[in-house]
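Appendix B. Raw example, untouched.
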Amino acid sequence: MPNIAHTYYPQQGSLVVLGAGESGVGAAILGKDKGFDVFVSDKGTIGASYKHVLEDEGILYEELQHSEEKILGASLVVKSPGIPDQAPLVQMLKKAGVPVVSEIEFAAQYTDAKLYCITGSNGKSTTTMLTYYMLQHGDLRVGLAGNIGKSFAWQVARSDYDVYVLEISSFMLDDMYHFRADIAVILNITPDHLDRYDHRMENYVASKFRMIRNQTERDYFLYCADDAETVKGLAIYKTSAQYLPFSQQQEMVPGAYLDKDQNIVINIPNKETFAMNIEELSLQGKHNVYNNMASGLIAKVQELRNQTMKESMGSYVNIAHRLEHVACIGGVNYINDSKATNVNSVWYALESFSPEIILIMGGVDKGNDYEMLRDLVKSKVKAIVCIGKDTVRIHESFEEDTAIIVNSSSMLDAVEMASHLAKKGDTVLLSPACASFDWFKNYEERGDKFKEAVMAL
């Protein structure tokens, strides 16, 4: 028999995996290794590299269709987080009584590793990567997975780690039921993806708080005490875990806070107190103080040495496309924040830089409310260069707040316009607030095109 850590679902029979991306192929490999009869079905085309993996593993698959009869006969279904619960096939499966779960839920059954799980509308990629970096420096055998890196299921199948740092999206959480986080982190909750939640903020908040389901008194729940929606959620959703809040506005003991001398202070019972001045952090900006607090709390729970934490927090280099410094040309700094696909991410970006900013924004508007940006645009932005197809609402929202708003015809055009508008000491910031798939395949391609255009100046 396979070594099964915690079983909640059928452990044999037919496993159907819907979606053949990173998470789906990983789930298929783990299912095969655990003795399931595995079938992978993708309504779109399957990438060549993933096809090769499935063929090498001897796993049956189909693309450009879903064979309903075969799928409805499954013992268990693992679905891609990109497939909504309202999809007719998912509804048919649930009506037939077939369990439909996420890759994370499926894989967690087969590991006794500690699971340190980070969610939030903004900052989760940075916090996840920083935590992973710090734990590596603490000589832990640590895996990185979830919404980032290699599939969690794939690693559970073929690797051997003591700890996983998991970036968890709300879409993943929606299909998680028995999963338990040893450490659960909610960084913040701001409006995003509301089209998946009946345009109801309370549904989105409920999804985020699924992170703390099934936690025990041995576990930890970390949250931002300065975030209004999180604080509201605390009154509704409870856990037996130990609460560790973090704040820049008030002292938190136990927890993390910013003292009067601008030191991050981390104080957990029976563990050495940690302090580090925010000027020593490699990641600057108010939002990154929160990210460092969350990562620092995880490291302190894990009992990393203070020196290891300081070295890590002082040397970490941010992920690509998130406030990534591209170049300084003629005294103008060019910043790639292509991963900022919602308004709150842009707020964080604008907050991080001094005036004068030339802001490149636009793309596929997800029903954005730009009101929260107006004060920062007034005080910091000297010009807006619009990209993408949805520019009307940007013009309407900011025409009274900044002197110049212009449209561009391509990323190259946008960067050239911005360079002409900028003078020494200014910042050209790509922070779109919108999805990318009008002009680009994804936010990575958008960021890469920005970087290419900057380097061509």
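End of appendix B.
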